[in-house]
Fold this protein.
Amino acid sequence: MLPREELLKAVENREAVARSIDLADQAIKTWEVVLTDFLEPPVLAESQQVLGRLTEVQLVAWGGYPQAERKRLAIAREEIPLDSTNIEVVALEIAGNFLFDTASHRDFLGAMLGMGIVREKTGDIIVLGERGAQAIVVPEMVEFLEMHLTKVRSVPVMTRPIELSELKIREPKKKQLTTVEASLRLDAIASAGFGMSRSKMVDLINAGDVRVNWKEVTSSSYQVKPGDLIAIRGKGRLEVGEVSVTKKQRYRLGLTRFM
C-alpha cells in the first residue's frame, strides 16, 4: 500500500491527486497500464510531481496533441513498456453553422456538461468560429455524444469522430522579451513580461489569478527561477528563460510570452 497521506503533504489539489495515487497503487498491484481521466494542468503537474517520487512506476501524459492543456495520465510499473499510444483519446467534430449565432468555448462545454457528462471525461475543446468546434474525449463518451449532442446554443450540430490528425491546432504566438530588473520577485517579472503595471500585477496575484508552474501563488515577493511558467487567467503564459547578473548587480532575464 502506498503511503497516501505522506505523499499528499503540501498538495494543493488533494482529492484529485489522491485519485492518481490510488491508480498508481492499482497499477503496481495488477501489473496493468492504468489511465486517469483528463486532468487540468495544476492537477496534472501535482500528480506528476507526487508520483514521480515513486521508483516503482513510470508516467506518460497525452491529450491528443502536443500542446494540449488537459491530458490523461498513464501509470504503469517501471518494467512495462509505456508510451502515448497506451492512452486512449478520441477527437470529435461538432459541426454547425454558427455564422449568425457565434458560440464560445463555454457554450460547447456547457452543451456537453448539460447532458450529464462530467468535466473529467472531456479534454481540450478547439473552437473553429462559424464552423463549430472540435473536442477531445474519452472513448466511452463517443457514441453517447454522437447520438445526443445535436444542438449548441440555438444551432443544430452534427457530432462525429474524426482522426486526431484532423485537429485544427493553432500554434501559439510567441514573443521573445528581455528585461532587466532589480529582483526576481514575481510581481516585477510578470509585470514586465505581460506588459502591465506593477500595481495591477499585485492585484492579480492577491486575487489568486496568477499561477507559477500551475500552482496558485499569492505572494508578490515569490522568487522566480529559470524554467518557471507563469500563467494568468485570460492573459496567456510567460516562460522564464536564462537569468544573468549585470555589472550593476541587476538581473537580466530572457522571457517568452505565449499568447
